[in-house]
Design brief:
The complex is a heterodimer. Chain A has three helices and four strands; from the N terminus they run E-E-E-H-E-H-H. By secondary structure, chain A is an alpha+beta fold. The radius of gyration of chain A is 18 Å and the shape is globular. Classes of the chains: A alpha+beta, B mainly alpha.
Chain lengths: 112, 276
Amino acid sequence: MEKIPLRLAQAGMILAQPVINAAGTALVGEGVVLSDALVERLTQAGISVIAVKSGPKKGPGTADRVLGRLEHLFRKQSAEPFMAALKSMLHDYFERKSAEGKIGSQSDEPTT
Amino acid sequence: MTNDLKTAYKNSILAAKNLPTLPTTLLEVNSLLENPNVSLAVVAEAINRDQVLAAKILKMINSPIYGFPGRIASVQHALVLLGYNVIRGVIISTSILEDLDRAMRGLWKHSLACSVACTQIARFLDLKDPEEYLAAGLLHDLGKVIVSIQLPAAAKEAQWIAAREEISYSEAESRVLGFTHERVNAWVADQWHLPLPLRESMVHHHRPMSAQHYPEMACVTHLGNFFARLYEVGFGGDDLVPQVSPQAFKLLGLNRRVLESLLDLVGEKLEELNME
């Protein structure tokens, strides 16, 4: 774990401790992967230092990451039929990509 | 919102005092191009006189993320290959690059992601002059930067409202200012005499079917912005995907198969960009 100034935070880093504001409220929990949006929010909330996990950052693959965020990103649009259909199409696509990625990484392993 | 107030905002937004200054080279080149018979060599020479700018242009268009074939070694070559409109967009965006991230952390990367997505979409769909879409993506959120420079308190308030109430940044802008960055894009595009296709895509990227003359470029920018938001590369002011226009899908001839091919292409490029 290392403590870094928030301005050096980068998307993909993983929080090693919850982020707590001056009033003592936990804003984000431990283990959360930083995104640019989240860093911007923390900046606005007046946070200056955060604790991130050290070592090479290795987040989930793109397909898993987008899949995990789909509901959140579409949360205001799901009532609209076209957007709901689009979301379901994207869900199928990223689910398939995620499965393909896992098969791909298995076959990369040495077989002997 | 009264019209008086809107006019007052417009005036302060366009007040030359703080409006990002475009390199004098751009103005010089603009005036050269008023002569239809001007040679590319003369235009390239004018750009080359500003060596820092020339270097920035070459660096940007040679970035592997755009995938232009071969190495573009000179400004003249770039002008031949990409055309003047693209270079103009690149000059503007490199000049406001620092302002972009100062306005909103991650906005530069979001703009770059949108630009990369637009270029890939235009190329895949075999649209005419796919390079021209690069600038449309880069500049689609220019209005957000301008507002944050000219009316910093209003921009901060919009960022706050968008985060607190979980609404889109555009909606937050409407509440605070009475108009969105698309309106500001129109004012600035006029002020800087940007070409019509670029202007329309900047002004209508959220409602692309309102683009009267070049709906295709507006639709591609609309979709490019959606992709940049979907993959969350950079930050455009909120973490919501924008409403996608079914008519834009139709106009570009998208169906599930085409959409998936585009996701394959754009996804790979945006993943590279996210690693940087």
